[in-house]
Design goal:
By secondary structure, this protein is of the alpha/beta class. Helix content is about 35%, strand content about 20%. It has helices at about 25-35, 50-65, 100-105, 130-140, 160-170, 180-185, 195-200, 240-255, 265-270, 270-290; strands at about 1-5, 10-15, 20-25, 40-45, 80-85, 90-95, 115-120, 145-150, 175-180, 205-210, 220, 225. The strands form 2 sheets. The chain has an 8-stranded mixed sheet, with helices on both faces. A 4-stranded mixed sheet has the order 3-2-5-6. The two termini are about 20 Å apart.
Amino acid sequence: MLTVIGEALVDVVSSDTTAPRPHVGGSPLNVAVGLARLGQPVQFVGRYGRDDYGNMILHHLRRNSVLTPLEPDSQPSSVALARLDKTGAAHYSFDLLWELPALDRAAPRLFEDTQWLHTGSVAAMLEPGAHTVLAAVERVHPRALVSYDPNCRPTIVTDRDFARRQVEKFVSLSDLVKASDEDLRWLYPDRHPEDTARAWLDKGPAMVVVTRGARGPWGVVRDGAAEVAAPAVDVADTVGAGDSFMAALLATLMERGFGGSGRRDALQGLNAEQLEEVLAFAARAAAVTVSRPGANPPTRQELGLGE
């Protein structure tokens, strides 16, 4: 079982040529859906309200076979307004609430079967919920592998020094970190993204991966670094591409037997050739997502994996 903790929201996407249209989203939620579509048992731990948008979120999760152990609450569901530019890149503004008191009440029972815990984005940065998420990661770390994607949102958390400190807390508890080159340039403007990835590797993770848009992903493990080219596709938009990439990374590592804290040392021993293989698989998943509108990750069948 994989557990994903984080925000759920509705992306209202528009552009100069299209009317606003709602899509269920939120980076962690997208990762959970991506994992389920790739055949992984997964539960999503997040909040959303008992309103129309909350109903959309809950239906989307259940339709994609994602387990939902926490009930909706009485607060409004969160919304992200995404504006697409001429290249299909999304620029966001947010109206969101992030707190998760139900998580404290549900733990530790909630994590009994968790082999891998993933979190990141707003959930690991915005208080008061970020404190709750960090405590959950600290609680689960001794018995499960942990992954983290900072997915920085400078329009929400504007204090770069705070964001950097918060990110480094999660990096030090993680076995796998994925970040975009944009994230790393914002967090560390005076350092090359690959240098930051190597510095993070020294803090404990087995693998740090940097996504670089059309240039394709680059990653580093203790054995060395690897990169792969991004598959050539016609881009509809980039919404959810990084989340599909993250889900595919986790899915292929789980299928290779990397799940549970007992596999932590084995993951630390991953070599550069294996890294290249998992990067290539994740890049294929992201390419499918950018080829169609919204955060719409691929299924196993679409990636040629069969049932």
